[in-house]
Write a structure and sequence with these properties.
By secondary structure, this protein is of the alpha/beta class. The chain contains ten helices and eleven strands. The protein folds into two domains: 94 residues, 3-Layer(aba) Sandwich (Rossmann fold); 134 residues, NAD(P)-binding Rossmann-like Domain (Rossmann fold). Helix 2 crosses helix 10, helix 6 crosses helix 7 and helix 6 crosses helix 10. The longest helix has 21 residues. The structure holds guanine.
């Protein structure tokens, strides 16, 4: 069984990006610059944004964090997005989700200039990805694609089953696995909460991508012998034996599924660390104008 190590792979990618940034600086070019907007005080969002800003500094990017009150109006937020859109020094912009309920995610997302949309959330980038044009691809699916590529996991002609149809993970993942490319060329089944006989379907998967958001949902009886299993879930469970009082588990029951899988991502240390590496890579591409020429 191959343990697909996202921690190591993400570090490799960060090293590659850092080397390119050093080169750009030596050539007298502009330092890549990521801006993040964080609205309110959600604990998880603060942690994620903090990790993104820290990663920028580790690899030599500039970063700007704009923090806004929970009570900020939609109009004010749209103005901040527009200011960043117009700022030539900033290459990439992310607006951390979720947003407070009085703000329309659609309006805010649609305001982000596609050329700076390094989260790959705008209709322009989702459409471009779907057409198999150059696009910013959302961080989690892009991270999974990169893991499959770097571990040389064959996807062509394989049956890939995706569990979960979210806009951020399941839906783009199904498109990327089906597209004519590498990784890609898989026969894809996208399953969700209304799917009947889920277990019968997952048992036929050569590649199983689980993004359902339910702790240890996938058990060994749902998995074919030799399958590749990618676990996108991340959940905290109480564990008094840990100093922190908790441990992290995924959407897959790792202990039993890893006995059957030919390759599997652990939690933590699998897909999670890849997301930040993808965001940094997208920002480098934005700075170098590789997607929109
Ligand atoms: N919230 C959860 N995941 C993400 C992400 O990838 N980007 C942004 N902007 N917000 C998120």
């Amino acid at each position: 069984m191959i343990l697909v190590d996202g921690k190591k792979t993400s570090q490799d990618i960060k090293n590659e990006i850092a080397a390119r940034v050093a080169e750009i600086k030596t050539e007298g070019g502009k330092t890549p610059h990521l801006a993040a907007i964080l609205v309110g005080n959600d604990g998880a969002s603060q942690t994620y944004v903090g990790a993104k800003v820290k990663a920028c500094h580790e690899i030599g990017f500039e970063s700007t964090l704009v923090r806004l009150e929970e009570t900020v109006s939609e109009e004010e937020l749209l103005k901040v997005v527009d200011d960043i859109n117009q700022n030539p020094d900033i290459d990439g912009l992310i607006v951390q989700l979720p947003l407070p309920r009085h703000i329309s995610v659609e309006k805010v997302t649609n305001k982000i200039k596609p050329e700076k949309d390094v989260d790959g959330f705008t209709p322009a980038n989702v459409g471009r990805m779907t057409l198999n044009w150059p696009a910013y691809v959302a961080a989690t699916p892009y991270g999974i694609v990169e893991l499959l590529k770097r571990y040389e996991i064959e996807t062509s002609g394989k049956h890939c089953v995706v569990i979960g149809r979210s806009h951020i993970v399941g839906s783009p993942m199904s498109i990327l696995m089906a597209r004519n490319g590498n990784p890609g060329n898989a026969t894809v089944t996208l399953t969700h909460s209304r799917t009947q006989n889920l277990k019968e379907i997952t048992k036929t998967a050569d590649i199983l991508i689980v993004a359902i958001g339910k702790p240890e949902f996938v058990t060994a009886d749902m998995v074919k012998e030799g399958a590749v299993v990618i676990d996108v879930g991340i959940h905290r469970v109480e564990d008094s034996s840990k100093k922190s009082g908790f441990r992290l588990i995924g959407d897959v029951k790792f202990d039993e599924v890893s006995q059957k899988a030919s390759a599997i991502t652990p939690v933590p240390g699998g897909v999670g660390p890849m997301t930040i590496a993808s965001l940094l890579y997208n920002t480098l591409q934005a700075a170098e104008k590789k997607i929109y020429q």
